[in-house]
């Protein structure tokens, strides 16, 4: 016959066993839950890493060269709200645009025969002192190598209130398998919003051979001193860690002039 003491001990063992089984089940559930959470986090981290890679590289030129010089890849001019200036340049003449900056002078040779409406727009804007006192707001040092200027207040979407058509694109040649062409160091070209005929006042200075989509009007060439000045600015690096941001060596166009050569 089972004594009261033996019965008490048996009940205690059974209670202990039930508690142990509950603890073990709780541990298994927690382990399964943690595994699910870890898997979910891995997906999030992987997605984040992919997004960062795309963002940092900028995709391709228009994937904000770092996507290039456009409204993303390039500068984005504001929506057109006023008419393009009347053509007033000599379409057969050569012109020079001089940018007097706090980092040295940059002279840009332009041919109106190749880009009449682009040259005309720059002459019009320079005559109205549109560029005077404006910062060069974007420098890229990875993927593409350009200094972007032409926004009156340094805003990425700053523009003159009108747009001009693309010009001289055929001179860029046929795109390679990557869909891009070579913009040689020294080239000066129009930025745009990524859409055809969307140039405004923003432009970019190529300081090192760069491959971009053939959709940016090449309208000028920097002189040797100007190219060297831009390279020195680029040597100072860009803000942030992606190689695409405001130049650490602040650059301001103090005065812009356009004259017939």
Write the layout of secondary structure elements.
Elements: H1 4-57, E1 94-101, E2 104-111, H2 116-127, E3 134-135, E4 138-140, E5 146-149, E6 181-183, E7 187-190, E8 203-206, E9 210-212, E10 218-222, H3 224-235, E11 244-245, E12 252-260
Antiparallel strand pairs: 1-2, 1-12, 2-10, 3-12, 4-5, 4-11, 5-8, 6-9, 7-8, 7-10
CATH topology of the largest domain: Cyclophilin
Strand content: 15-25%
Order of helices and strands: HEEHEEEEEEEEHEE
Q: Determine the number of helices (DSSP H or I, runs of at least 4 residues).
A: 3
CATH architecture label of the largest domain: Beta Barrel
CATH superfamily of the largest domain: Cyclophilin-like
Major β-sheet, in short? Answer: 10 strands, antiparallel
* Helix-residue proportion: 25-40%
Low-confidence stretches: 40-65, 71-79
CATH class of the largest domain: Mainly Beta
Mean pLDDT: 83
Q: Tell me, briefly, the overall form.
A: elongated
Structural class: alpha+beta
Number of domains: 2
Distance between the termini: 122 Å
Widest sheet: strand ordering: 3-12-1-2-10-7-8-5-4-11
Number of strands: 12
- Alpha-carbon Rg, integer: 30 Å
GO molecular function, one term: isomerase activity
Keywords: Isomerase
Protein name: Peptidylprolyl isomerase
Organism: Streptomyces lichenis
